[in-house]
Amino acid sequence: MGFLVVFLIASLFAWLSAWISRKFLRISQLVNRIPGPSTLPLVGNLHQIRLKPDEFFEQVQGLAYMFGEKNGRIARAWLGPIPLAIIFGAEEVEPVLGSKKLLTKMFHYSFLSAWIGDGLLLSKPDKWRPRRKLLTPTFHYDILKDFVPVYNRHGTTLVQKMEKIAESGEFVDIFHTITLCTLDIICESALGVNIDAQRTIHSDYLDAVFAIKNIIFQRIVKPQFYPEFLFNIFGAGKEQKRCVQILHDFTNKAILARKKAMEEAGGIEKLVAKKVAEGGKGVR
């Protein structure tokens, strides 16, 4: 009886191994039709990946120049056994972003959940569809027009910074500069809080944003930290919790301030009426 159980378990294991191997081989054959850098067995391109986010994005840009321009603006890389298709062209990426079938994210996205929760970005298709229907009216043109002064003000600050960069005559990576402008616009539009990221050198919120960005990136490129318990014990789990606490405290304070403003105005209906009477379209 014992031999039979062992035999059945071994047979099942062998069958699963063969099935996984065939499936992986098929995926490998398809992915490797896409041009990309040479790989090592099991490791893939992990040994070539730069561990700093800014340097990594420069590396991705290099892939675009090496493989993308002549091959449909797409390249491939292997993150260990995980294949990555890197798309550089807007026309090429449009079918992917516009697809209603490709809604399930790679598990790497789950590393963001401690920060942003199970929202529109991370939710599974059964949650994503109804939530998207609820949020779509928020991005209506008439509502977005209310935020044009916000866009213009922060855009003007960006232009002023870019003018100084242009006058210097130096080669400068503007990715960080654009990121700060985007952060200013999102925080004031969504939360009603002007963090003035473009003019502020340091703040707890800004430092936490960039720190958690680096923590998540490091976790993505270091598979040994994929398991949550290993990340918490040997990785930057404690630092991530500290950053998340700062970010959530900031968001919660902003939400409570907006609720208080609505209550003092007599409720959302009266606040909307007041804004309309003042010449606005509604509440930002």
UniProtKB/TrEMBL annotation:
Keywords annotated in UniProt: Endoplasmic reticulum, Heme, Iron, Membrane, Metal-binding, Monooxygenase, Oxidoreductase
InterPro entries: Cyt_P450, Cyt_P450_E_grp-II, Cyt_P450_sf, Cytochrome_P450_Monoox
Pfam families found in the cross-reference section: p450
A GO molecular-function annotation: metal ion binding
Record bears the keyword Repressor: no
Localization per Swiss-Prot or TrEMBL: Endoplasmic reticulum membrane
Cofactor(s) for this UniProt protein: heme
SUPFAM superfamilies named in the record: Cytochrome P450
Any one Gene Ontology cellular component term annotated for this protein: endoplasmic reticulum membrane
UniProt KW S-adenosyl-L-methionine keyword: no
Record-stated family: Belongs to the cytochrome P450 family.
Name of this protein: Cytochrome P450 monooxygenase
Species this protein is from: Heterodera trifolii
